[in-house]
Design a protein that fits this description.
The protein is of the alpha+beta class. About 35% of the residues lie in helices and about 30% in strands. The chain contains two helices and four strands, in the order H-H-E-E-E-E. It has a four-stranded antiparallel β-sheet with strand order 1-2-3-4, with helices on one face. A hairpin with a 4-residue loop joins strand 1 and strand 2. The N and C termini lie far apart (about 50 Å).
Amino acid sequence: MSDAKVLIRPLITVVMLGITAVGLYNVYSDNTELQARAARLACGGVDCPTEKTRLERTPFSQTFEFHVATKATGGAGATVAIVCRPAYLLVGDYDCRTQ
């Protein structure tokens, strides 16, 4: 067995385990702060009453759907979808945008 195989196989294993750990962290970590930021964005950047109707978490993004009562709809509710993705593929601060 060559020296390259002896070094590359364990290195690939460690990298893949690291990627798996980061993905699991993105799905199962506490996202309370991110939910609050997404709710604020759903309200146009201010705090307003919202009701979360859907949450989808993957290693690559988090999608929130909020029911928001707006003045533009005469107090009737509107549904707003917010998608938050890490700055880099799996890591970094989340950037949220309306969908």
